[in-house]
Hints:
The protein is of the alpha/beta class and 141 residues long. The chain contains one helix and nine strands. The strands form three sheets. It has a four-stranded mixed β-sheet with strand order 2-1-4-7, with no helix packed on it. The chain has a three-stranded mixed β-sheet with strand order 3-9-8, with no helix packed on it. It has a two-stranded antiparallel ribbon with strand order 5-6.
Amino acid sequence: MDAIPETKVKSGYVGILLLLTCAFFASGLFVMVAADTNTQKFIIHLGDYRFHPDAIEVVAGRPVELTLVNDDKITPHNFTLKDPGTGMDLSANISAGKSAMLRFIPQTAGSYVFYCNKKLPFMKSHRERGMEGKLTVQPAS
Ligand SMILES: [Cu+2]
């Protein structure tokens, strides 16, 4: 007779613990998702002397994360964006078949050119062969 109520109390206690645990994880998940949506993420493929896509648009004042994927089998590529006027200075080398990540926060709205700085002696540079793109930074709303 005594054992039955005791079991009920214990299972009730465990139930509350489970509920609190779920609430904790649910709120944690929400925070993670909320923080994640703030970052402007793009995947740019590099290959055949092109960037895909070759035009991206972001908003000033929010973090940008570029994942750069070199799809070529033997040709190394690079991502360069330099704008002394605004202090934008990005550069990453990406070996054939590898990827790299660039993170930055654009501060000034405008249009910026990015390109690959690779060039073999006596050959046209990758940029001259078309490896160029445009980053548009919209003013913060
Ligand atoms: Cu290149």
